[in-house]
Automatic annotation (TrEMBL), chain A:
GO terms for cellular component: plasma membrane. Keywords: Cell membrane, Membrane, Transmembrane, Transmembrane helix, Transport. This is Carbohydrate ABC transporter permease. Residues 88-279 form the ABC transmembrane type-1 domain. Gene3D superfamilies: MetI-like. It comes from the Bacteria.
TrEMBL record, chain B:
Pfam families: BPD_transp_1. It comes from Paenibacillus arenilitoris. This is Sugar ABC transporter permease. CDD domains: TM_PBP2. It is a multi-pass membrane protein. The chain crosses the membrane at residues 20-39, 82-106, 113-137, 167-190, 230-255, 275-297.
Length: 294, 304, 559
């Protein structure tokens, strides 16, 4: 599992590139490019459609579907923003909160399980670890009831706490493996200096864990960001809805208002676009971190 | 003597502190796991033997829910649909592999890099947007597909798409065309990069054709990655229902209903809150998913 | 596991305590409210509104109140503004009351799901608009206040000496359906706007231009004429009707079913059981005992009529929701769209490029099916939806008083006149004239069957996937017999569950009887007004009869 995570790289290592067979036939190379261009076009045209529809009004969409001509309705974005803006805020708070809390808890547990000694450590670790193998499909209803009994319904915490809980098994496993792999001397020397466990964790373990932390934060963030079903059942007030349920709701109530709807879809894609633009490598690793979860 | 015992006392003390600290570090994680993961799971198993509406009715009924599920025609329809989706989801893993192999063989590394980024773009669009977008494209009156057929003069091929029970399933499969999964692609590419360069040299000497080369060199190399992705597809398709919930809600009729969605509808549908029955459906899915998980662990490990 | 079971027990205990408090609260409420208005038997001179003049109500003036009410009436539609104007007026009258009107659309089941979560977390609004099905669900879960107490008192905003319940059109009898819809047999809902509730059949909005082009000279009055009109429209190249796969399914089955063989199911039982309150129970028992079979000819006729009609609906209807269907009509893609008076202003403002009109729901004649009663239900003789009050308010009697006062204000004649004019709806209280615009929606010479007597298709009513099964029937080549078999399978299972729940000693009818008996005893001991005692006695008698019905027919089969 680790192998996969570490090997997703941007750009091909030079060694591999050099050894690839030389293919004299240029048209073979051309065919490959043509294939890839076609694939990318097919993959991306729905989003291109989305972009072009986002600046049209309903008449333009209905009668001039494939043309884009003035007047351009950039006001669609203003209209969409007033509705989608708060959803983005909600999504950011929930996804960000979940990511932040879960990295601290999983890192602490990773350190505790990886480097500390205390009775009952192994059984406790197994409790957490074993849940990784148990599917969560039947959790929905009881989780809903639990959220209600804890008084969490209709609050950000319903999403955050359950997301943090869901992140535990896999990321505790990863953190523990990572911490256990670090040289013991690093920790011992700090102990000799009289540092307490909390300080060692804060000043030594956390900095060491940094690459895994960002990976896990991103993974948790994306999971919450794209989650639809859980917020659908737990968060119902309009002013607390995340983008997933919020957009689905808008699309069913603003029927016919396609322009502003599409503008809303575009706006909802911006935060991840920014994340992608600024942290491409981490972003991609975060994705596969999720895939490896199974 | 005194020094020794003092030292021992010290060790004891730090040991105790260390111990306490140990619990302090791991207990939050353990508590979160137990409360938000195990408790719901066990509670669900428990309630699948109950007639339960979440408030006033709560009665132990033994295996009644399961007996009812077995007699329930709607459940079996949903299982049939699930098998349909399962079959095509597995078949549709091929385009991603093909695209990755082609991408990997491209010599211009700059272009290769550009294609990779383009393949990643769908991931920055929230999944819900993709689904809603496709739902719009299928709209029979003003959606993209019928408009396109109109422009091409192929009006006779226009369809009701999601409104046609015979076609709705296929429409859901078609969402995601050309079926390039970003995550799966990244996993395959990682696998290809990991390969010892000498195999490529050998292949070049053999002068094998591109398809033959794919079949005999790249595909065997991707076996581990394929298995990993296969398990994701299996578990995701058996237990997942987000797509159906958003795009068709299982309709028209029961044409796109899957067991997960049926569970959801029985619990949260309008006018019903049959949590006990829904939990029983969930337990069946849980057992299937558990089997997949167990087999996959064995199967993936066995070759690595 | 053991611990879980233990928790269960505790929960159980809490639950039965909850049930018991229901009755205490009903009594309490009567007591609390008798302070603000006298009772029906002896209208004290100081009553309506002791100390104040009539039409102003009396609520604690020294405290300020913040009241949250929720509805699906958006500010864009016609009812929403009518409500908001009335709320503003009330706040002017009572500056210490602040009303917040929350809006949550019904689309995608969002309204119910929101309430589900709000009720369990005790964050629900103080009063909320509910249809009778949701009202039943929440009343049965003990989330709604029982309103018989206040209903038996005088209304502070009505100058007559009538009890509040008698000021409504149809009087106390008009609440029969609503009462039969919850386990207490109580009033849990205050009608304010006579939307779909006062009007048991929805009309069709139609596109006059398309009808002209299709050569339809006279508007269809019978079902056969409607089908003929559809044929002409289709021949002229138009889709006749914009349908949807959800709400319309419910409507069309109800409105077609309404017109077939009344008294069909009750006829299977002894005379004494044939009361409207037990309609749903008779449905279930008829299915359970096999008195009502999967090949019932009346319900088969209903399905066949709908299937025949469905060939004229727009393409792809099964995959669209009601808003999308409305758009199709609005954009001139179909000639008709079924909806109620609440859409009138919307169409007035938004229909462009054609003229629209209204066709009342046609009467089904013997020409179409031998089971036709050739009658439509009487408009507005039964209240069927309204506003319910959050049970949590019982912990805050002053606020409860204010909420009740607010609704008495809304159902006062003066406010009703203003609201029904602005909202284009049928007034729910008697003595207020119906706005002209809404008349085409309700008045036809055929409105003759009392609503409580109409036929309901038990198969369709009791099958939980009824809409999906109907969609399959209408969009594939599945035949009527197969469809009814499918409906029957689900309906029979649910009938069995319903019967076993009803007979359950802890949560079923025996428990209701116990609660009602205690409630009655307490009322008598407290010298409650005679009308209150009477209404509790009535509910108790219905519950006893219900238990008898289940004991006689269902119990032997469940063993």
């Amino acid at each position: 599992m680790d192998r996969i995570e570490q090997d997703v790289r941007w750009g091909t290592p030079a060694s591999v590139r050099l050894r690839k067979p030389a293919r004299p036939r240029a048209w073979g190379e051309l065919a490959k490019h043509a294939f890839m261009i076609l694939v990318c076009l097919l993959l991306l045209y729905p989003f291109a459609l989305m972009l072009q529809m986002s600046v049209k009004d309903t008449e333009q969409i209905m009668y001039e579907f494939f043309r884009i001509s003035s007047p351009y309705h950039f006001d669609n974005y203003a209209r969409a923003w007033s509705e989608v803006g708060p959803m983005i805020k909600n999504s950011v708070v929930m996804a960000g909160g979940s990511a932040l809390i879960s990295i601290f808890i999983t890192a602490a547990a990773g350190y505790g399980f990886g480097k500390l000694k205390f009775p009952g450590k192994e059984p406790l670790y197994w409790i957490v670890f074993a849940k990784m193998m148990l599917p969560g499909v039947m959790n929905l209803i009881p989780s809903f009831v639990l959220a209600w009994k804890l008084g969490l319904l209709n609050s950000y915490w319903a999403v955050i706490l359950f997301a943090v809980g869901g992140a535990q098994p896999f990321w505790v496993f990863v953190m523990r493996t990572f911490v256990a792999g670090q040289p013991q001397e690093l920790f011992d020397s700090a102990k000799v200096d009289g540092a307490g466990e909390a300080r060692i964790f804060w000043h030594i373990a956390l900095p060491l864990l940094r690459p895994v932390l960002s990976l896990s934060a991103l993974n948790v963030f994306l999971g919450v960001w794209n989650d639809y079903i859980w917020p659908l059942v737990t968060i119902q007030s309009f002013d607390k809805r995340p983008i997933t349920t919020g957009l689905a709701y808008l699309s069913s109530t603003h029927v016919g208002d396609y322009g502003p709807l599409m503008a809303g879809y575009v706006i909802a894609s911006v935060p991840l676009f920014l994340l992608f633009a600024f942290g491409m490598k981490q972003f991609v690793q975060g994705l596969t971190g999720g895939a490896v979860k199974l | 003597m005194a020094v020794q015992s003092a030292a021992r006392g010290q060790r004891k003390k730090t040991g105790r502190i260390g111990r306490a600290a140990g619990y302090g570090f791991v207990l939050p994680a353990v508590l979160f796991t137990v409360l938000f993961e195990y408790y719901p799971m066990l509670d669900g198993i428990f309630h699948s033997f109950y007639r339960w509406n979440g408030s006033t009715v709560e009665k132990f009924v033994g295996l009644d829910n399961f007996a009812e599920i077995f007699r329930d025609g709607v459940f079996w329809t949903s299982v049939k649909n699930m098998l349909f989706f399962l079959f095509f989801q597995i078949v549709l893993m091929i385009p991603t592999i093909a695209a990755c192999i082609v991408l990997f063989r491209i010599k211009n590394s700059k272009m290769q890099y550009v294609y990779r980024i383009l393949l990643c773009v769908p991931m920055i669009i929230p999944g819900i947007v993709t689904m809603l977008l496709w739902q719009f494209m299928y709209n029979p009156q003003y959606g993209f597909l019928n408009q396109l057929l109109d422009v091409l003069g192929l009006q006779q091929l226009q369809q009701l798409w999601l409104g046609d029970p015979a076609l709705a399933k296929w429409c859901l499969i078609f969402i995601g065309f050309p079926w390039i999964g970003t995550i799966a692609a990244l996993i395959y590419l990682a696998g290809l990069q990991n390969v010892d360069g000498s195999v490529w040299d050998a292949a070049a000497i053999d002068g094998a054709g591109p398809v033959k080369k794919a079949l005999f060199i790249e595909l065997p190399l991707l076996k581990g990655q394929f298995k990993l992705n296969l398990v994701t597809v299996l578990a995701g398709t058996v237990t997942g229902y987000g797509l159906q919930l958003v795009v068709t809600n299982g309709g028209p009729g029961f044409a796109t209903l899957v067991p997960g969605l049926y569970m959801y509808q029985r619990a949260f549908g309008s006018g019903t809150s049959d949590y006990g029955y829904a939990s029983a459906v969930g337990l069946i899915l849980f057992v299937i998913a558990l089997a997949i998980s167990a087999i996959s662990i064995k199967y993936i490990r066995s070759e690595e | 596991m053991n611990r879980l079971r233990h928790t269960k027990k505790i929960v159980q205990k809490h639950k039965s305590r909850g049930m018991r408090t229901a009755l205490a609260a009903a009594v309490l409420m009567t007591a609390a409210l008798s302070g603000c208005s006298g009772n029906a038997e002896e209208p004290a001179p100081s009553s309506p509104a002791a100390g104040g003049q009539a039409g102003e109500g009396s609520i604690p003036a020294d405290k300020s109140f913040k009241i949250k009410v929720m509805s699906w009436q958006g500010p864009q539609e016609q009812y929403g503004p009518a409500y908001n104007a009335a709320f503003d007026e009330y706040m002017k009258l009572h500056p210490n009351v602040k009303i917040e009107h929350l809006y949550q659309p019904l689309a995608n089941n969002g309204y119910d799901k929101l309430l589900d979560t709000q009720f369990v977390s005790h964050e629900a609004p103080d009063a909320m608009q509910l249809n009778k099905y949701s009202m039943r669900k929440y009343a049965d879960q003990d989330y709604l206040a029982l309103l018989d107490g206040p209903m038996q008192q005088l209304s502070a905003y009505n100058d007559s000496a009538a009890r509040w319940v008698d000021t409504f059109a149809g009087g106390e009898k008009g609440f029969t359906t609503l009462k039969s819809f919850n386990k207490y047999g109580a009033i849990t809902s205050i009608p304010v706007d006579g939307g779909p509730g006062a009007n048991p059949v929805q009309p069709f909005y139609y596109n006059k231009d398309m009808f002209d082009k299709a050569g339809i000279a006279e508007l269809p009055e019978t079902w056969a004429e409607l089908i003929e009109a559809c044929r002409k429209l289709e021949a002229a190249g138009f889709d006749a009707l914009a349908a949807d796969g959800n709400r319309f399914m419910q409507w069309i089955t109800t409105y077609v079913g309404n017109q077939l063989e009344p008294g069909h199911v009750p006829g299977l039982f002894e005379e004494k059981y044939r009361i409207p309150e037990l309609k749903g129970d008779m449905d279930a028992i008829a299915l359970l005992t096999g008195k009502y079979k999967a090949d019932n000819p009346v319900e088969a006729a209903e399905l066949a009529i709908i299937k025949d009609f469905s060939q004229y609906w727009q393409d792809g209807w099964a995959a669209v929701n009601e808003d999308q269907a409305k758009q199709a009509f609005l954009l001139g893609k179909t000639a008709m769209y079924m909806s109620g008076n609440w859409d009138y202003s919307y169409f007035e403002q938004n229909v462009k490029g054609f003229a629209f009109g209204i066709i009342p729901f046609p009467v089904i004649t013997k020409e179409t099916t031998p089971f036709a009663s050739e009658m439509l239900p009487v408009a507005g003789d039964q209240q069927s939806y309204g506003w319910s009050v959050n049970k949590d308010l019982e912990n805050d009697p002053d606020k409860l008083k204010v909420v009740i006062d607010l609704f008495q204000f809304l159902t006062g004649k003066e406010t009703q006149k203003k609201m029904s004019d602005a909202g284009v709806f049928v007034p729910v209280v008697s003595g207020v004239s119906t706005p002209d615009k809404v008349k085409p929606f309700i008045a036809t010479a055929n409105n003759k069957i009392p609503t409580v007597d109409i036929f309901s298709g038990p198969l369709f009513a009791l099958a939980n996937d009824n809409k999906a099964i109907l969609q399959v029937y209408l969009t594939t080549d599945e035949d009527t017999a197969g469809t009814m078999e499918r409906l029957h399978q689900q309906a029979a299972t649910n009938a069995r569950k319903k019967a076993s729940d009803a007979l359950d000693a802890e949560g079923g009818v025996p428990n209701q009887i116990e609660i009602l008996q205690q409630s009655l005893d307490k009322q008598k001991a407290d010298n409650a007004p005679a009308a209150v005692v009477q209404s509790t006695t009535d509910s108790l008698n219905v519950a006893k009869l219900k238990l008898e019905l289940y004991k006689q027919y269902a119990e032997p089969l469940l063993k």
